[in-house]
Amino acid sequence: MEHDYDLLVIGAGSGGVRAARVAAGHGARVAIIEEYRVGGTCVIRGCVPKKLYVFASRFSDMFDLAPSFGWTVDANFDWPTLVANKEKEITRLEGAYVSGLEGTGAEVIRDRAEITGPNTLRLVNADRELSARYILVATGGHPFVPDIPGRELGITSDEAFDLETLPNSILIEGGGYVAVEFATIFAGLGVDTTIVYRGDCILRGFDEDLREGLDAGLERRGIRRIYQTNVTALRKQDDKVCASFSDGVDAPFDVVMFATGRRPNVRGLGLDKAGVKLATNGVVEVDAYSKTNVPSIYAVGDVTGRVALTPVAIREGQAFAETVFNDNPTAVDHSLIGTAVFAEPESAAIGLTEAEAATHGDIDVYIAKFRPMMNTLSTRSERMLMKLITEADGGKVLGLHIQGAGAAEMVQLAAIPMGMQANKADFDRAIAMHPTAAEELVTFKAPTHIYRDGVKQD
Ligand code: NDP
């Protein structure tokens, strides 16, 4: 049977756009359907605006340091200018995404799609049915908000970028990436900021040294952290939102933001009509080639619940197009993925944490904590952290954890030798570049501590 298209992609975010472009480049007849703005969470209300706001928030740190270098700064911040300039930039990027898609011959359809069968979907607004040999679900995710009374009074990261005015105070619930990054942004812009988190320290799953270092960094920046506590209700109190906490305390804030994780966008998508199987946590179940249980339907990115990071979705989209439209079966290796938290101090990691590595055999742990040169003329006591974890006696590098300025850039580069299975000697062979922070990575001498048979030895 002749279909209208070879590929219909639902969702023009990072994964969908890459898949559409590559498939069209291989000669497929492709349409990509998007109900909101082209670019997805990353471009429109995620990584890109977040990083721009992180840049904005870091100026306050620089202004604090400036006098130690002889500068006098009289600085003022204007939130509407930042919001407007951010909007200009993401509109430009959105345009670049659209022209990139159209340049490869993919058609961009602005509508909502609902799957009606293994090879068909309906455009809701146009009220039209389309068919394709393959359908790719790349619908991403949305912020999850706990089901508490007054939850509608809170915002999520979707709204945080476009607040009409910069609040005087904000409460952020959660202890993950979004909570920590937004807390850093708002505090850096002068907002009285509080994090409330159900766990005992932010960033569960990260290396303990990184978690502690970041917690101390938030403290230094005046960010209040309330641990082992939940928000149980919100109510309006004059022009503020009053939060009730699980420890019985009530407190008013200008804004309350939920950063309590994300859920896959599967609702109303018609996956059931095609018989697509979902996992118990609601994500679309796929195999190593991103194929669902329905052979004509694939899924990539956050909706599959593998690793919710833009570059991973892009890889998955690329691999899907290679597999299906270039006769080149390609599976994405999810085993060694670097990640960064753009908070203050910036924190980035790749590979195993110390706790994980210690259960994998004998390991050596090298740690450097030092005052970054940038701070040496001031009274700042903040330390930079470099932690390298290797197999025992100079074996393979298993994990790298960096905290401080440029952490993400350094970990990105170290991902190359680590992907090549580099060992300690490979790192040591590099001659240090001086004075840099990264030189610590190639000048580690004796381990700070080691683990033998799972036991830590100093
Ligand atoms: P995360 O999963 O990182 O964090 C969610 C946080 O909310 C956790 O601290 C979790 O607690 C807490 N939480 C979950 N449910 C509840 C609840 N019912 N009540 C109270 N607290 C709750 O999600 P984020 O939204 O921060 O980020 C989503 C994903 O987006 C990340 O996993 C990451 O993959 C990606 N991302 C990446 C960024 C980057 O690369 N820099 C930046 C932002 C997002 P607990 O720890 O106890 O589970």
Strand-helix topology:
Layout: E1 5-10, H1 14-25, E2 30-34, H2 40-45, H3 47-65, H4 79-103, E3 107-110, E4 113-117, E5 120-123, E6 128-137, E7 141-143, H5 157-160, E8 169-173, H6 177-188, E9 192-197, H7 208-220, E10 224-227, E11 231-237, E12 240-245, E13 250-253, E14 255-258, E15 262-264, H8 271-274, E16 297-299, H9 310-325, E17 339-341, E18 347-351, H10 354-358, E19 363-370, E20 384-391, E21 397-403, H11 407-419, H12 424-429, E22 449-452, E23 455-457
Parallel strand pairs: 1-2, 1-6, 2-3, 6-16, 8-9, 8-14, 9-10
Antiparallel strand pairs: 4-5, 5-6, 7-15, 11-12, 12-13, 17-18, 18-21, 19-20, 19-22, 20-21, 22-23
Write a brief caption for the model:
Helices cover 29% and strands 26% of the residues. It is globular.
What tags apply to this protein structure?
single chain, 458 residues, alpha/beta, FAD/NAD(P)-binding domain, Enolase-like, domain 1, seven-stranded mixed sheet, seven-stranded antiparallel sheet, 12 helices, 29% helix, globular, binds NADPH dihydro-nicotinamide-adenine-dinucleotide phosphate
